[in-house]
Input
Amino acid sequence: MSRAAPRAGARGSRALPPFARTFLALCVVAAPALAGVLPEDEADLMYHSYQGGDITVQGPSVLIRKKVGDNLSLTANYYEDMITSASIDVKLSASPYKEIRKQWTGGADYLHGKTTYSVGFINSIEPDYKANTTYYSVSQDMFGDLTTVTLSYRRGWDQVYRDICNAPHPTGTYCPDIINDPSFHQRADHRGYTFGMTQILTRNMLMGLNYEIDTDQGYLANPYREIRYLSPGGLGFTLAPQIYPNTRTSNAGSVQIKYYLPWRAALTASYRLYHDTYGIVGSTAETDYTFPMWHSWVFDASLRYYTQTHASFYSDLFPYANYSNFEARDRELAAFDSWTAGLGASYEFTSIPHVPWIHKSTANIRYDRMMINYKDFRDALLAAQYGAGNEPLYKLDANVLEVFLSIYY
Amino acid sequence: MGGAQLGGDVNRGRGRVAARLLLASLALLGSLAGCASVEPWVKPYEREHLADPIMALSRDGIAANYRDHVFETREGSHGATGAVGGGCGCN
Output
């Protein structure tokens, strides 16, 4: 599973190719000299919770955004996942665990005329996974501000570890001393290219378009999950390590239409089509209805449908050991569809006594119910009862909750 | 490993193509910005409804990013949502 040797920098400092020279010349000649808008100064404090499939993920998130002068806006975000997992996967081939993932983001938006340049850095750390991501984007308002075009580039470097139990508790019920397996250290690199456009269509209608190409290279599997193949005796199957391709390239395109209704409400419809070199084709359709009520309240109701085909090297139960070069049983690569229904409410405080520098604040709550029906991922924990390959298909229902306070100053 | 290296080359090749597409788009973007004298068919004074906060394409950015993360860690698809990823927290 070792990855191909990196070749970055092999070209050295050669002269700019003709294409790049043309591009830079166009940038200089056509430098925009118009006006734009930076995001508002704000502070957000959020508590989030996900519960489903014997997994609980919860934690806080804090975001602060502040302008420095007229052209620069700085953003800082801290996000935390406190994870308790006894999912079907860890019950089958690992041990229930608790861990914390911490993520820091720092970003800057610089406004020049009608162009906004953005850069940012994300650092995510959990005991067995470290990820660093940088992103860069440029946005341009054009055609009398009817159109905003955004181009983004993202680069990520991940380090993958595997936790093992260094000293099991005498009772064998849990492990008080978990360490990284010294024989396992892998890397994964990611690149993402995004084109986005927001277009005013009519005085009541907006359209958003996004297209993204992502390439991933390195160790892309989950080191804890395993495939299973038919074998005589016992439960009727044997577990073995997953083998993923070392590369993955994906394409995703989405369109979003937002319409202002005559009674002051907004209706949104969106669709995304996804395809990757694993052979997964995914479709997402979502509709959202936003409506204000009682002067200070805004309510939101949404319904999302998602469906995907399975990866070409996925199987719930392989017929024998070493059946193919690549083998996976990650349920994220299985065929499934899901429905998610959500409700949200937001209350706006127009002013807070004795705090004149806060000009607006909102208290928000949102709940989503997620229902996933797998088409070829079976509950292998029931193999003794039904026989390997005849277990019921797995279903996952999850509750997702967000509570957050936003302050604009 | 041969297949993996071939896959890596293909991946890098696609990356270079994507980078060139990005540069081409940037060039086009700069060119368009330089000659942006198109008459807007929705005048600024006709955008009252579009300026209403309920018409923001991404309301509640911090919560929207979180929901994208929830979906992306449980689905095979990702991208084209505007979210920028970090780690997973999903083993």
User: Anything to note?
Assistant: The helical segments of chain A are 18-29, 88-93, 383-386.
